[in-house]
Each structure stands twice: as C-alpha cells, then as structure tokens.
C-alpha cells in the first residue's frame, strides 16, 4: 500500500463521550461515535466545506 503522507486524526475529548476528528484537509468535526467519525473522514471532500468546520 503506498504511503501518501496524508493524516487523519481522531482524539477523545477528556471529560466527555465525544470524539473530535481532523481531516488531512484541515476540516474538523465532533461526533458521538467512531463509526460516524470514520464515515465522515473517509467521505472527503464531501462534508468538509467551510460551513462544516467547528471551533
């Protein structure tokens, strides 16, 4: 499998049940579960517009 250098990141927000994801394009999103988060990350660029950024 070729290495692209693109990094997606998922962090758990301490003190909550939320996951915060950052796509390689810089878009960020907070989700309740890992399935929803990975679906969003892997759907790039769909759902990654400026109106979808949080924080």
What does it look like?
This protein has 55 residues and is α+β, with helices and mostly antiparallel strands. The chain has one domain (9-48). 16% of the residues lie in helices and 22% in strands. It has one helix and three strands, in the order βββα. It has one helix at residues 34-42, and strands at 9-12, 19-22, 28-31. It has a three-stranded antiparallel beta sheet with strand order 1-2-3, with helices on one face. A hairpin with a 6-residue loop joins β1 and β2 (19-22). The chain starts with 8 loop residues before the first strand and ends in a 13-residue tail after the last helix. Residues 51-55 have low confidence and may be disordered.
Low-confidence parts: 51-55
Task: Report the count of strand segments.
Answer: 3
How big a fraction of the residues is strand?
Answer: 15-25%
Major β-sheet annotation: 3 strands, antiparallel
Note the overall shape: globular
pLDDT averaged over residues: 83
Question: How many domains would you count in the coordinates?
Answer: 1
Which structural class do the helices and strands define? alpha+beta
Please give the alpha-carbon distance between the first and last residues: 34 Å
Radius of gyration: 11 Å
Strand arrangement within the widest β-sheet reads 1-2-3
Number of helices: 1
Secondary-structure element series? EEEH
Q: Percent helix among the residues?
A: 10-25%
Task: Please identify the oligomeric state.
Answer: single chain
């Amino acid at each position: 499998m070729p290495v692209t250098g693109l990094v997606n990141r998922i962090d758990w927000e301490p003190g909550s049940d939320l996951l915060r994801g950052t796509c390689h394009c810089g878009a960020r999103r907070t989700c309740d579960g890992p399935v929803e988060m990975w679906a969003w990350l892997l759907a790039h660029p769909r759902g990654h517009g400026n109106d979808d950024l949080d924080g």
